[in-house]
Amino acid sequence: MAIKLHPGFAVDPGEWLRAEMIAPHGLSVTEAAAKLRVTRQAMSNLLGGRAGLSAEMAIRFEQAFGLSADTLMRMEAAHDLAQVRAKGEEVGVERVAV
Question: What is the pLDDT of residues 33-61, one digit of tens each?
């Protein structure tokens, strides 16, 4: 039997990366950006929850920290789905009868 989590349980991957990888390694946003060879602005947006995690950035974190890019991308997908589901009927599509 699979464990079923509440649909609203989703962690922002950027905020998780900041708390679990960047901060424990004593890195500033600028230092992390330099190590991953991205702009400081891109790193700041990701770690601050203002931008989603791209596949390329997931690979960069995989190579830099040994994390699984696949796991990070699943985190991003779960977070994105939870965000949209929280809006409920605001999406506003018409049900197709089958």
Answer: 999 999 999 999 999 999 999 999 999 99
